[in-house]
Amino acid sequence: MLNLFSLRGLPWISGTDGQEKVVLSATEVASLRSEITDLEEREAHLKAQLEHLDEILRSARLSGYLYLRTRWATLPGEPPPLDDAEVDDWLPRFVVLQGSCIFLYLASTDLSPQDSTLLSDVVEVGRLPNLTREDEEIRYCFFILTRHGLRYECSTASDVQVDVWLEALQIDCKLGSESKAVDDSRET
Q: Is Signal a UniProt keyword of this protein (predicted)?
């Protein structure tokens, strides 16, 4: 059993029965027990993350990684926002459409979301112009606007993924003809 651990520097001795044995001090035994406890806790945490991710994937209507940035609508009397077209503030997020909410996770293995929005608060969804990154990769974009003035701008490398998200959001948010159609502002 001890051969499974790579315990360098421990004093190995040959026993009278021909087997090698290791002699440990009480401090070394306590240290090993502490390491084993830490590993068991880490294993339990990883299992919880895996079970949570499994539950999300089973119960979610739609989920996946999207690049995301948030913008707030300007309030009356505020100066117009600066042109931020040159600012690359897109962050990858694991986005989940589940039940009556949109959940935003930093990573798919996170146990709790970083942010969430009720679908009933969504007033508009639609396409945004495509982005071309420095490496010539095209990102297809769309937005989700809430009644509070918060606008989630989302992008992905897949145009089909944008269509799927927009269709699901329009149906789940019951936007219908009020929202921009999936094909309205498509740019080639």
A: no
pTM of the model: 0.66
User: What is the number of other CB atoms lying within 10 angstroms of the CB of residue 185?
Assistant: 13
Considering the domain architecture, whether residues 125 and 70 belong to the same structural domain is answered as yes
Judgement on whether residues 120 and 95 belong to the same structural domain of the protein: yes
Element (H, E) at 123: strand 122-132
Distances, alpha carbon 73 to alpha carbons 29, 98, 100, 123, in Å: 61, 26, 23, 13
Looking at the structure, tell me whether residues 48 and 76 fall in a common domain: no
Strand-pair category, 91-98 with 101-105 = antiparallel
Report pLDDT digits (tens) over 77-110: 777 666 565 666 889 999 999 889 999 999 888 8
Q: Is residue 49 located within the same domain as residue 79? A: no
Do 174 and 100 belong together in one domain?
A: yes
Q: Judge whether 185 lies within some domain.
A: no
- The one-letter amino acid code at 179 reads S
Q: Which domain holds residue 173?
A: 61-178
